[in-house]
Write a structure and sequence with these properties.
The two termini are 28 Å apart. Helix content is 74%, strand content 0%.
């Protein structure tokens, strides 16, 4: 027995379904970044409190082995929590990319319903790299400043400073120059490794199988 052919859904119902999904993505995206900003704020408060504590200890006991021990322990603690925060920002950036991709797909659905809406959108209308970049930058070409000023690079920079400082304290008995050079090299390696992780994550986002609505896709009205 053949299955009955479902009646076509009206454009108004399609638009309502798309809008519901759109608002759902916006809500989850906002919740995600509120949590991430809270994590970054907590990490910065922890870092500030640790620096203040070390300053007070330094005034009390001087730059002795006790101070060095406390600095290393606090530094490792900060680096642990900072690394966990960096991973959360890293994962949230991945999730955010998919949120934007999903909303771009929804806008492609709006255009299927009414192609005449295209001139009114400033955000991207495709889920390929160009369309997602359009949504992130609202039109201008993405520059190095967009990456350098991101939350991910910010927390990586803070963690790099902490990692370099801990290394310098560990190597301090070998001499000031050894401690300085060791801290700088470890800092460069730490920063480069995290930037590589971010770059690799971005390359995974560009996998062609994730793109369903490229820029060359024809848009037409839905009956």
């Amino acid at each position: 027995m053949s299955q009955p052919v479902p009646e076509p859904v009206s454009p108004a119902v399609r638009a309502q379904i798309l809008a519901t999904e759109h608002w759902g993505l916006l809500a989850v995206r906002s919740q995600t970044w509120n949590e991430v900003m809270g994590r970054i704020t907590a990490q910065l408060m922890f870092t500030s409190a640790s620096l203040l504590f070390l300053a007070l200890v330094g005034q009390s006991v001087g730059y002795t082995d006790t101070f060095r021990f406390l600095a290393i322990v606090l530094g490792l603690t900060l680096l642990t929590t900072g690394t966990l925060t960096a991973f959360r920002v890293h994962n949230a950036s991945q999730e955010d990319y998919m949120f934007v991709k999903g909303m771009n797909r929804l806008r492609a659905g709006y255009l299927d319903i009414d192609p005449g809406l295209e001139p009114y959108f400033i955000t991207g209308l495709t889920d390929d790299e160009a369309g997602i970049a359009q949504t992130y930058t609202m039109g201008p070409a993405r520059s190095a400043s967009h990456v350098a000023a991101s939350s991910g690079v910010f927390i990586i920079a803070v963690n790099t400073i902490v990692a370099a400082g801990v290394t310098a304290f560990v190597l301090w008995p070998l001499g000031a120059w050894v401690a300085a050079v060791g801290g700088i090299l470890l800092g460069i390696a730490h920063f480069a490794w995290w930037i590589y992780l971010g770059w690799r994550n971005w390359q995974l986002n560009l996998t062609p199988e994730w793109t369903r609505f490229p820029a060359d896709r024809a848009v037409g009205p839905v009956s």
